[in-house]
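Quick one, tokens below. Sequence please?
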């Protein structure tokens, strides 16, 4: 299956065209808002501060890039004369936001200068030639994997918090995607916890794995909607996402496309981290556990950022406690338990984040002893989070 990619390269229109188009102000602003996030404040080249505007047919295409990540969308417009120009996006966005008129006319009036007119407001903006804009990869003809946007967004939400922020461990600064055996597996880890989520999915004939940077994951999560599909294409060094736009998002045409570099290197064998023996297990109401851990964590501080979980067959309770120089907290949760007494400690953040990410009413919490990792598992969803324990003093 293939996806028709938008004209992301700067060669689709002739530079001699005198561009002029009329567009709904809200549609223009929404389109710019969709692409502006990838523009950094410290771009290495002036052209990377700009949005490429291409007018042709009945659409205007907006493209931005920071060389690692590019994003493109189309908006409906009345194009009088086709053409291309780049304009500084940090200047253009507040101008379009401030306009009071319903319609906006954008016209190339001279060499790299654009007039923006809306009602009685007129702006003259200096741009840069479109030919200077870096080309962005197209994946036309490449095999494509399709997944519901809601499913992909849910999977990323359940693992993305576990990405590493340590720049020295760049392989872990992102999410690992693995398409194999009729399913998609996404994994993130920072060495202290590991989150994994799987979904059945028709994938490529050959197994495919790649690492997407944290910045790409954040942008994907922002763009993914409820309804419609995301289509994934891939080459050796880049991955492309074509994100269908719901029909009720008036003004945006068809889809948004995002192109990202992949992280080069081999992801650690995450399967070795997941305990092969389940150990003891308690079933808990997710929200009750989340609330209890959150309350106990109020007594943690920088020196004692630990909560303790104690479970006893005799008491049939899971007691959550925390102690620091400020004081201490204790809170029991009634459970059904038929295993040995266990006392285990965790960083509270590492328990709270997966509990916030999943949506199930109940979860299983598995543990073996105070030195072995704990595992939070979903009951219906194929999700787990492995959490390394803290040493109990």
């Amino acid at each position: 299956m293939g996806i028709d990619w938008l004209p992301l390269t700067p060669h689709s229109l002739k530079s001699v065209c005198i561009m002029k188009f009329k567009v709904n102000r809200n549609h223009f602003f929404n389109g710019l808002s969709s692409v502006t996030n990838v523009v950094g404040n410290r771009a290495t080249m002036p052209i990377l501060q700009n949005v490429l505007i291409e007018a042709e047919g009945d659409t205007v295409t907006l493209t931005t890039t920071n060389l690692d990540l590019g994003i493109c969308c189309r908006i409906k417009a009345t194009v009088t004369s086709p053409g291309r120009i780049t304009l500084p996006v940090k200047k253009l966005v507040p101008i379009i936001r401030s306009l009071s008129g319903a319609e906006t006319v954008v016209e190339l009036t001279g060499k790299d200068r654009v007039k923006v007119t809306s009602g009685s407001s007129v702006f003259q903006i200096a741009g840069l030639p479109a030919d200077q804009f870096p080309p962005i990869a197209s994946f036309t003809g490449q095999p494509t994997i399709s997944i519901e946007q809601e499913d992909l967004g849910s999977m990323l939400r359940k693992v993305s918090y576990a990405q590493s922020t340590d720049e020295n461990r760049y392989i872990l600064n992102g999410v690992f995607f693995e398409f194999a055996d009729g399913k998609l597996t996404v994994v993130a880890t920072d060495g202290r916890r590991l989150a994994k989520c799987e979904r059945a999915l028709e994938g490529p004939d050959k197994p495919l794995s790649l690492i997407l940077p944290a910045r790409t994951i954040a942008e994907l999560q922002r763009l993914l909607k409820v309804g419609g599909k995301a289509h994934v294409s891939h080459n050796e060094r880049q991955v492309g996402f074509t994100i269908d736009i719901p029909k009720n998002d008036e003004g945006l045409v068809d889809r948004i496309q995002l192109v990202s570099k992949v992280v080069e290197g081999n992801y650690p064998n995450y399967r070795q981290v997941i305990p092969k023996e389940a150990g003891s297990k308690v079933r808990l109401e997710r929200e009750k556990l989340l609330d209890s851990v959150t309350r106990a964590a109020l007594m943690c501080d920088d020196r004692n950022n630990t909560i303790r979980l104690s479970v006893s067959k005799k008491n049939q309770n899971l007691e959550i406690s925390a102690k620091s120089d400020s004081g201490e907290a204790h809170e029991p949760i009634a459970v059904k338990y038929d295993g040995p007494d266990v006392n285990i400690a965790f960083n509270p953040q590492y328990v709270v984040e997966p509990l916030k990410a999943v949506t199930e009413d109940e979860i299983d919490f598995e543990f073996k002893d105070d030195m072995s990792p704990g595992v939070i598992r979903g009951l219906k969803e194929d999700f787990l989070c492995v959490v390394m324990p803290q040493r109990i003093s």
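The domain at 20-132 is CATH 3.10.150.10 (DNA Polymerase III; Chain A, domain 2). The chain has a mean pLDDT of 90.
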